[in-house]
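Q: Got a minute? One more chain.
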Amino acid sequence: YRYIGYVILTGNCATYRFWYENCCRPPGITNISNSNGNGADGFYFDAELNNTLGQNSSPIFVSEPVRAFCVNNPFNWKQSSVEYDGDSVRYSLINCRENAYPNQTNIPFDWGFSATQPVSSLYFNINPSTGQISFYPTNQEIDALSVLIEEYRYDSTWNVWVKVGTASRDMMISIAFNCNS
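A: Always. Here it is, folded:
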């Protein structure tokens, strides 16, 4: 799904937060055993905004969030985004989350998995500058993972980079035993 919203803000604030949460993840997710699809687990997405340095819009993910991969093949999967204000962006992997703001919580990964290693893989890396995820899956599985984009703007008055926003994405990927030709 894609969620889009437009809001006209009446003033400047360093801590606007926009969020959406919903239930439920489907059953059968490998890296989060609590994901059983019966209401005990949900989705949580958010975006933060600091408009004290002027107008700003959140980064927008433009790459597909749901992908299929296969065992024993190296993959490079770019988390492409558009940032219309010219701000610098930084990509990272975070825990999947659930529950409504301000009570959102991290969903614990099963043993052997983490936010930075959400897939059974020889390696799993995200380039913080480009958002490209590189990995080599070793098991057939369905996994959940979450990506965060932070955007920064240079404040020439104080000669510092100031965080002006974030956007997050929660995804599921399927890793098949064989790739179809």
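A: The chain has a mean pLDDT of 87.
Q: Perfect, thanks.
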